[in-house]
């Protein structure tokens, strides 16, 4: 029904209503939990629609240009977070997104690997699957642990910052003070390296980085939820824009695919945001942890199926 | 399929950024208008102002 060819190396036709529905679901999840949803979108495009890994990565980044720009303008109106963190991390992030795109191109050129006795599998898909499994497992464990420990807390901490380990333990000069979020003496090289890692994850995996960056801001820096939410959006927008240009240049972006998903996700994110007013924060975190864990199982199952040659 | 020229590649790369950004801008304008409408309708009825205020999108993890 309403099948369309999406170009950019996707050999088969894809159902447009199904794409809009997936976009709606991912937007709903994104709006509900306040993440970009890229960690679900790239695997969904690969496994549900059979989109080749590099095209799934490039198109997911392209879709994120729209969502991150809208978020950036929205959070500028609300004036929360610390833009200096974004600016310091930006240099590292731009180098990182270039490195991630080059690595993706290299892996795409590696062809197929034979693992054990199974049939050969695309090298790029094996690497992406393993990376998604590791990163999402860590996110699920951290979020679940935090939601579990939140049971014992008697009062909300509000906008107060409790300096985390990345601030108190990493002592590599020079330092920067971040008065908007009540942090002093934060290591600049550490911020640059974090920017590099997030940029590389964007370029290689097609994720905006929210699923990695938010836990880092919340648990590593100790920011409040509100301040963490307003931080990193400028960084995200610039990173995905540069990443999209690089991936489009390589021929990895299907604009039709990205726009179809974007239309669905725009509606879904509004619906998801409404849901958050009816569920307590701790329950939302628990649901999020379960969802991420299920995604990990799905990817692991698909990888084992690929390796066994089924 | 014919290889794209340099200008076609540049135009496509720019379009891949401009099209989603334009859509994002449109969605933001529509959602801001809806929020403003809801606020205005709340002002019409006494005592309903606070409830009509739509809470901002927030991150929850």
Description:
The complex is a heterodimer of chains A (310) and B (61). Chain A has helices at 16-33, 38-47, 53-78, 83-108, 123-149, 165-168, 188-205, 210-221, 225-230, 233-250, 255-275, 281-308; strands spanning 3-4, 14-15, 112-113, 121-122, 175-178, 183-187. In chain A, strands 1-2 form a two-stranded antiparallel sheet. In chain A, a hairpin with a 7-residue loop joins strand 3 and strand 4 (121-122). The mean pLDDT of chain A is 85. Chain A is mainly alpha-helical. Chain B is mostly helical. Chain B is built from 2 helices and no strands. Chain B has helices at residues 6-44, 49-52. The model of chain B is unreliable at 49-61 (pLDDT under 50). The interface between A and B is large, with 48 and 25 residues.
Secondary-structure map:
The complex is a heterodimer of chains A (310) and B (61).
Chain A lengths: L2 E2 L9 E2 H18 L4 H10 L5 H26 L4 H26 L3 E2 L7 E2 H27 L15 H4 L6 E4 L4 E5 H18 L4 H12 L3 H6 L2 H18 L4 H21 L5 H28 L2
Antiparallel strand pairs in A: 1-2, 3-4, 5-6
Chain B lengths: L5 H39 L4 H4 L9
């Amino acid at each position: 029904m309403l099948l369309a060819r999406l170009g950019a190396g996707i050999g088969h036709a894809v159902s447009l209503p199904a794409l809009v529905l997936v976009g709606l679901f991912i937007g709903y999840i994104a709006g509900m939990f306040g993440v970009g949803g890229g960690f679900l979108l790239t695997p969904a495009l690969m496994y549900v629609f059979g989109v080749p890994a590099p095209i799934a990565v490039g198109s997911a980044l392209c879709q994120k240009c729209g969502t991150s720009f809208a978020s950036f303008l929205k959070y500028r109106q609300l004036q929360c977070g610390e833009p200096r963190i974004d600016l310091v991390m930006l240099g590292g992030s731009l180098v990182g997104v270039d490195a991630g795109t080059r690595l993706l191109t290299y892996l795409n050129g590696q062809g197929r690997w034979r693992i054990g006795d199974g049939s050969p599998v695309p090298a790029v898909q094996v690497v992406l699957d393993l990376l998604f499994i590791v990163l999402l497992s860590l996110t699920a464990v951290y979020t679940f642990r935090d939601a579990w420990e939140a049971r014992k807390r008697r009062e909300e901490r509000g906008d107060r910052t409790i300096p985390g380990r990345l601030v108190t333990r990493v002592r590599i000069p020079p330092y920067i003070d971040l008065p908007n979020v009540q942090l002093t003496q934060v290591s600049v090289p550490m911020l640059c390296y974090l920017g590099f890692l997030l940029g590389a994850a964007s370029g290689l995996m097609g994720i905006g980085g929210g699923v990695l960056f938010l836990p880092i801001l919340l648990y590593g820096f100790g920011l409040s939820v509100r301040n963490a939410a307003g931080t990193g959006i400028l960084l995200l927008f610039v990173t995905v824009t540069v990443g999209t240009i690089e991936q489009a240049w390589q021929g990895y972006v299907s604009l039709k695919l990205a726009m179809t998903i974007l239309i669905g996700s725009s509606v879904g994110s509004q619906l998801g945001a409404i849901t958050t007013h009816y569920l307590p924060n701790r329950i939302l975190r628990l649901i999020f942890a379960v969802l991420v864990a299920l995604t990990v199982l799905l990817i692991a199952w698909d990888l084992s199926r690929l390796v066994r040659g089924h | 399929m014919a290889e794209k020229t340099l200008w076609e590649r540049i135009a496509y790369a720019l379009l891949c950024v401009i099209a989603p950004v334009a859509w994002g801008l449109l969605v933001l304008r529509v959602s801001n208008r809806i929020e403003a409408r809801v606020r205005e309708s709340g002002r019409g009825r006494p005592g309903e102002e606070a409830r009509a205020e739509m809470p901002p999108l927030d991150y929850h993890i």
